[in-house]
Amino acid sequence: MDHPLDRPARSALTGGWAHLALGDERALRIEPEHGPFAAPADFTDANLTALRDLPGAEGELWLVETTPLLTLPGLRILREADITQMAADAIAPGEPDFETVELGEGDAAEMLALAALTKPGPFLAKTHRLGRFVGVKREGRLLAMAGERMRMAGFAEVSGVCTHPDHRGKGYAAGLMRIVARRMLAQDETPFLHAYAANEGAVRLYETLGFRIRRTVRLTVVTRG
Length: 225
Description:
Elements: H1 8-13, E1 21-24, E2 27-30, E3 38-40, H2 45-52, E4 61-65, E5 75-87, E6 101-103, H3 108-118, E7 133-138, E8 141-152, E9 155-163, H4 172-186, E10 190-196, H5 200-209, E11 212-224
Parallel strand pairs: 9-10
Antiparallel strand pairs: 1-2, 2-3, 4-11, 5-10, 5-11, 6-7, 7-8, 8-9
């Protein structure tokens, strides 16, 4: 049986995201305002065709798979990238030396703006509702944040990690990630994350926190046509 992290989007769409999933047994995607992630049940032409017919496929669908996507009926590949998938059984000692705040609905616009500026990954109008987020504010302005995204039985993803360019180098990302990941461990969930394989600096940072490389997965961004 495949490990749930081998097909993380599919596992989330049939697990923690099931209430937000659109489609049917052939192919699913998350509700478009929450994110672009999608997955077919498997890679038969019939299920890949169902992927093409999902709501919002005229925009972007993000597929995170280990199987190479060689044929995509009715879909066009926009971009591809190798992704390093990491997981942690424990988080390295250390506590943030700065004040943090819980983020919620009232922070949504500022969270979206920070994500648009820093591009930590797909972050849309309702992405902040996918889990708990924690941040750093100074004089009422959001400087950094981290939170939760994919979730399936036994696993939860650390995501949305970003810091305003004017405030980097202060340890905000590492401190916030520690908080988010430890909360997951306290709930008997294994924290995992994804980083572009080319971003070696980020991978090294995550290793200092206790994350270890699990495998490489392939991100394929597609659109109908």
